[in-house]
Amino acid sequence: MSAAPLELIPAIYFVLDEAGIIQAASQFAAESLCLPLSTLLGSSILDWVHPDHRTSFCDRLLHGGTTDHPVHRWETRLLGANGTDLRVRAVVRGADQPRPVRLHLVFEALSNPAPPPTEPQLQELLRRAIASIAVFRLYDNGQWHYEFFSDGCEIVFGFTATEFMHEPMLWWSRVLPADQSKLLACDQKILQGEPVTYEYRFRHKDGRIRWISSSVTPIRFPGQPFCWVTAVDTDITAHKRAQRALQESESQFRQLTENLADVFWMMNPRTHRVLYISPNYEEMTGLTCEVFYRNARSFLQVVPPEDQPRLIAEWEAKVYSGRGEVIELRILHPQWGVRWLRTRFFPIRNAAGRIYRLTGIAEDVTRQKQAELHRDRAESALYQRELNLLLALEAAQMGTWEYTPATGKHQWSTRTEMIFGFAPGTFPGTSDRFYECVLPADREQVAQAMYESTTHQTPYYQEYRIIRLDGAMRWVSVWGAVYWNTEEQSWKMSGVVKDITERKLVEESLRTQAMQEQAINLMVQQLNAQLEQQIHERTAQLQQALEFGALVKRITNAIRDSLEEGRILQTAVRELAIALNVHSCDTGVYDLEQRTSTIHYEYICSSVDSAVGFKTQMESHAEIYEQLLRGQFVHFCWQWSNQPPVMTRSLRQSYTVLALPLIDDQGVMGDMWLYKPKEQVFSETEIRLVEQVANQCAIALRQARLFHAAQSQVRELERLNQLKDDFLNTVSHELRTPMYTIKLATEMLEFHLRSVSPLTVLPNASPDASSAIAATQTAGLKATPDSLQRYLQIIKDECLKETRLVDDVLDLSRLDAAADPLVLSTLPLQPWLLHVAEPFLDRFHAQQQTFQFSCPSDLPLLTSDFHDLERVFGELLQNACKYTPAHGTISMTVQYLPGQAVAGLENGSSRGCFQILTSNTGVEISAEERSRIFDKFYRIPNQDPWKYGGTGLGLALVKRRLNRLKGSIEVVSESGRTTFTVQLPESIEMHYGATHS
User: Fold this and answer.
1) Are 416 and 400 in contact (CB under 8 A)?
2) What span, in angstroms and rounded, lies between the C-alpha atoms of 290 and 301?
3) Which of 300, 652, 855, 911 could potentially form a cystine with 830 if both were Cys, beta carbons 3.0 to 4.6 Å apart?
4) Predicted confidence (pLDDT) at residue 46 exceeds the cutoff of 90
5) For 183, what's the count of Cα atoms within 13 Å in the CB-facing half-sphere?
6) Is 152:131 a contact under the CB 8 Å cutoff?
């Protein structure tokens, strides 16, 4: 509201913010309180309320103007500047929000009321008001007719009163369609005589959208079909923007304070009412925020009783000082015991310079207090040691000295000058003059000792002889240590010197005692140096050591019982990256045979590209990986350029890199890389932390790999055990069946040979043989040449099976030992293959199988060991005959590939190779079985072992024989057909042990 209408309001009128600060006031209010208007603006409303009514006034003001109580009234008393005491009725009204940003406060005088304004004053107030005041008739059918528009409508809507009066629908057409339904709903309430206040959006004449607040008051007279309506519209666009900005600011403020490790608080310094406290207050003090909101003095519950008077006095003294202050106090936490808190608070002033807020931050400084206590104790102990040392030096008649190697300057105490025979203050302090005092025989020893001590920064101790100015020779004992002088930025030596001439003249026992005193003095020097170093280091390292210890424990617990390699490495890199705040942490797994390192797991920030799966050749960075393979870490700075070298990841800036091996007692399994910005380095504590984590990861990885290896070995042993059982069962069956057949045929043959004369059953004949002989005798059968030949053929065939079985086992052993030389021959392939297939033709015919043979007649000659080849193709044809069903087809096809080597052989002949395909229909081998059919003793599980027979050595021998002949074999099984492809070089190169025929 502008200043002009406020001057005309005949009431004590204030506009307050949420904190009760006066933002605007009427001229009548200033005159009633006998104050200038500038004094009222920016002050607190409580400054002008009678002290007896301030508490109740605050309570009513807080509950007034809310949604539940939009208008609140009560009686109170005001105090003017000249002591005037006014009894008034307070009326507060707020905006239509849960937490109003502004309050409108009007005081109605209950005594000495002001005269009412005159009619011209009211007309002038109405004309100059910045609000749009409209009077219209609203009919029951929703139509309206304008009777009056104030000049303020042009300020609010952009249109003049004349434009609105001549075009009744102009105002409605400019209301946003989304808000029109809300306005229509309000018309029903207006027609019922109910005052309505609502907000809507209106398109201003300049085209911009404006927020309008409308207060509508209806009056309905009996017998009239319409209501007289007075509507007061004001532009609240700025208020809406401020409200939205305030909500965003409040949200940001809460996010900030609730994520702080410390406690943020805000209160009214006059009423001591807490306006805000961050949630960390409950964790820091053990008290709830709700209790603190109700009563700020509830905080004293955790303050020790003996500290409460001092705390209250200090608070009262500092809270009204008008500047930032700090208070330190102790509390008794219900869970953690005694804790130290430090709160920093400062005032916030309004535009008039008055303090209307008090904000502060409380932090837990218990650790700092404990560190200060330890430091004070250490400083006290150090001072006592220095005092004891000075007393000891004086009592021992020792002098002190200091030497700067860079300048050759010596500084001696008065006692030292006296020992060397100089008057106090006469020693020039040069190295030449010092060595002149040393006996010539001892000068080299002294110079060498000084050089080694300054070069290696080791303690200095010497006993040597000196020549005093009076010519007397004396023995001196000198102690010293090397240290870095931070002020002069140079290395220095300091120590003590003592005349030990008398000690040198006494007996050996006294000399031993003096040497012990010397050792004690040196120990004192070392302890003092160590204590000073610990004072500086321990305070800085204590917190980091505790955090790192907890981190190592957490990572160890996470990966100790895990048997998954991925989970182990992912947990380690994630925890390390977060704890050390690095840009990237990844881990690589080594392939020592290929000399590569592959990144498997990583944890990176958003500015770093992912490198999972990136493979690095160790030779490309031999200087790094040689050190990692020796079990040592590498700490270096990598500089990025326009053409960066190949690293473990694509980097676009310079980094400080720490690489550590994952190593155990069995060797290196991988590495771990961490990246920091180039201006940072990894401290020794961080390196030790990463080493501990890497060692734990290596142990866990080895444990996981051993577990999986053990599981694989168990499965392999189970498979081998099953193969062994199958082989023993098969060999037992294969040996027992031919022997039984041979035995029966022999007995029958023996019977027929003796059939010319009556015979009795042999005593050792089997029951089956005895029954057969008896049946033959009963039938009167006699031996014939055909029956004798059949029995002999049975014996021959079964003996051949036994021989082949034994030969297969022996051949397997000989092929593994490479004991037999090759017997090379050169033959045409077509007639030889027909010769190999000829024994199987009768079996093909008997089993109703079709055999197809395709071989060009103009093939080159083949040079190879045909004895092994005969065993190879005989086994392939036998398997085809065995597993092909009736009416199936067996085929053998020969091709010659000129100028092509055998597939899969590095030293194959380039002259050409033969390719022989042996296939049969009716069977199909699965992909899993095809990869194992060339293993020793392996037989396809889904086949009947007693139906087809065999020991599982046939294809294993084929594979080994072809390897011996520099050939290869492959199997393809699909669409109901199985094909074995054999490739042989045209000529085998002569080698040691081969013979040629």
Assistant:
1) yes
2) 14
3) 855
4) no
5) 21
6) yes
pLDDT at 115: 52
Q: Residue 644 has what pLDDT?
A: 47
Virtual CA dihedral for 947, 951, 956, 957, nearest 10 degrees? Answer: -110
CA–CA distances in Å: residue 230 to residues 117, 227, 242, 386, 461: 21, 10, 28, 93, 107
CA distances from 254 to 248, 249, 276, 349, 898 (A): 10, 9, 10, 21, 84
pLDDT confidence of residue 982: 92
- CB atoms inside a 10 Å sphere around CB 249: 11
First to last CA, the chain: 125
Using 50, 70 and 90 to split pLDDT, how confident is the model at 944?
Answer: very low
Residue 694 · residue 662 · CB < 8 Å: yes
Residue type, 336: W
Confidence (pTM): 0.30
CA-to-CA separations, 607 to 495, 603, 675, 762, 824, in angstroms, rounded: 54, 12, 12, 98, 69
Task: Calculate the CA 377 to chain-centre distance.
Answer: 41
DSSP 246-289: HHHHHHHHHHHHHT-SSEEEEEETTTTEEEEE-THHHHHHS--H
Pairing label, strands 889-898, 850-854: parallel
Q: CA distances (Å), 674 to each of 587, 610, 654, 693, in order?
A: 9, 14, 13, 13
CA distance 660 to 671: 6
Helix pair 785-817, 684-753: axis angle to 10 deg: 160
CA dihedral 840, 842, 847, 848 (to 10 degrees): 110
Cα–Cα dist 167/145, whole Å: 10
User: Which SS3 state, helix, strand or coil, does residue 404 take?
Assistant: strand
State how far the alpha carbon of 795 is from the alpha carbons of 121, 188, 343, 732, 749, in Å: 145, 120, 110, 19, 10
How is 162-203 classified by DSSP, letter by letter? HHHHH-TTHHHHHB-HHHHHHHHHHHHHHHTT--EEEEEEEE
What pLDDT is stored for residue 66 in this prediction?
Answer: 46
Quote the tokens at residue 118. Answer: 């005159």
The stretch 550-574 carries a mean pLDDT of: 74
Residue 942 pLDDT > 60, yes or no? no
Question: Is the pLDDT reported for residue 88 higher than 90?
Answer: no
d(CA 973, CA 383): 92
* Neighbouring C-beta atoms of residue 966, cutoff 10 Å: 22
Give per-residue pLDDT as tens, 380-410.
887 787 777 777 777 777 888 999 888 889 9
Helix (H) / strand (E) containing 827: strand 823-827
Q: Tally the C-alpha atoms within 13 A of residue 914's C-alpha that lie toward its C-beta.
A: 26
Longest dimension (CA), the chain: 169
Question: φ, ψ for residue 763 (rounded to 5)?
Answer: -65, -30
User: pLDDT (tens digit, 9 = 90+) per residue, 257-287?
Assistant: 666 678 888 888 777 788 888 888 888 888 8
User: What pLDDT is recorded for position 697?
Assistant: 82
pLDDT of residue 804: 65
